[in-house]
Amino acid sequence: MFKGHCFPKSIILQAVYFKFRFGLSYRDIEELMAIRGVKVDHATIQRWVFKFTPLLEKEFNKRKKAVGKRWRMDETYIKVKGQWRYLYRAVDKQGNTVDFLLTKRRQRMSAQSFLIKAIGNNGKPELINIDKSGANKHAIRVYNKRSFSKIKIRQCKYLNNIVEQDHRFIKKRILDGLGFKEFESAKRTLTGIEMVHMIKKEQLVSNKKSMFKSFYSLAA
């Protein structure tokens, strides 16, 4: 994974972790690394995040703990290059992150894409709680029809408070930084933020005592 890079794995992962954990700008991370005696350009750190995030996510998904069978599904808004994009997310009854997907539009196909991704990574739930969103309701009904499933739909707004609270953590992390200028970059950075958030919620199978060591173990 790290073969051919001028910097060792420990340095690369530390810089990438800083971006995901603390919502710093790339220039902030460049300064922090310089304080630690490592001279690396902020553009290089950005390339590391872009390159290694999908690889770390793949390993994370292999070791992610199983989630519950009752989900809370919702979407929130993320600004990318001055335009609103839509982040679909789901958590289980205990607040564990089920899955997430950043899309360019809020429509039925986006909700369906998210549902297919979430089920593909986590298995079928027995029930999904949603708000009054017609797109989410339609997505579940279409999935049930096409796959001969019987996922129950429950529309109760206050039961979705748990996922709405979880949205706030992710959005705060984004607001702490300088925002996103490209959609693909936003997708990969959000993936990293979600991964670290799940590590914090102890959703990664790991015997490491610290969050960073657990994150580091993904590249072991």
TrEMBL record:
<protein>
    <submittedName>
        <fullName>IS6 family transposase</fullName>
    </submittedName>
</protein>
<dbReference type="InterPro" id="IPR036397">
    <property type="entry name" value="RNaseH_sf"/>
</dbReference>
<dbReference type="InterPro" id="IPR047930">
    <property type="entry name" value="Transpos_IS6"/>
</dbReference>
<dbReference type="InterPro" id="IPR032874">
    <property type="entry name" value="DDE_dom"/>
</dbReference>
<dbReference type="InterPro" id="IPR052183">
    <property type="entry name" value="IS_Transposase"/>
</dbReference>
<dbReference type="GO" id="GO:0006310">
    <property type="term" value="P:DNA recombination"/>
</dbReference>
<dbReference type="GO" id="GO:0003677">
    <property type="term" value="F:DNA binding"/>
</dbReference>
<keyword id="KW-0815">Transposition</keyword>
<dbReference type="GO" id="GO:0032196">
    <property type="term" value="P:transposition"/>
</dbReference>
<dbReference type="Pfam" id="PF13610">
    <property type="entry name" value="DDE_Tnp_IS240"/>
</dbReference>
<feature type="domain" description="DDE">
    <location>
        <begin position="69"/>
        <end position="203"/>
    </location>
</feature>
<dbReference type="InterPro" id="IPR012337">
    <property type="entry name" value="RNaseH-like_sf"/>
</dbReference>
<comment type="function">
    <text>Involved in the transposition of the insertion sequence.</text>
</comment>
<keyword id="KW-0238">DNA-binding</keyword>
<keyword id="KW-0233">DNA recombination</keyword>
